[in-house]
Amino acid sequence: MATIKDIADAAGVSQSTVSRVLRFDNTLSVSSETRNHILTIAQSLNYTTTEPKPEQRKGSILIVNRHSDLLSLTDLYFQSIRWGAETALKGARYSIISHTIGEVFPQASKIAGIIAIGPFHSSEVLQLKSLDIPLVVINADTLPQQVNCVVSDYEQAVQQILVYLSSDGAQTVGFIAGSSTHESDQTDPRTKAYNQYMNEHGLYNEALIFTGDFSIESGYDSMHAALHSLTTSLPTAFFVASDTMAIGAIKALHDAHVVVPIK
Question: What is the rounded distance in angstroms from the CA atom of residue 95 to the CA atom of residue 89?
């Protein structure tokens, strides 16, 4: 198991700095780049903080996952969210209880709060809300259910990516979209943002859109399908919905001997 010294050596900082960053000590005077660098290394080394001793615990926080299949466990985005949440909570002396939708719910009297890492169906959000325990949902807009949430500004991020590609000379931009039978009743916001931008600029072309399930394999298969479908009419660039899918998409391009420039 990785230690604070291992992380410090890899990051080129002191063990004290690593320790304070992993405790999310906001009084530490380091740049956001250094903090992110340390957290990225810690995650890559599978570093885990120790559970607080029983006499030191402030309480237990329930971390709720949407599903427990292989895709959920290997998705880099949700992995990083779970890791960050658990690290911060342990540093604040909370113990962690993991729960997956559909399992028997643990005894509510032992739970101080719930962090639900989405996306979720509306009915599932309302079920969690009915427990009357402090609740926040991550990566899903649950304000219509009057539940606190933390969501990424996908619309702005996707727009910035597409504007950058256009300014960099991309005349056409294909899209490897993400969808899943496990998803919530909300359309993936990256797909909505891509479609909106392309329609507004008169660039929408359904033939350039390929959809997978957010896995590495589906990223590979989607790009493989694009290569065979578009042949000599490949777009200048592809926007891929997630890092996990991008790994597979780049592998497919490499296997087809298509050069992927490093930017």
Answer: 7
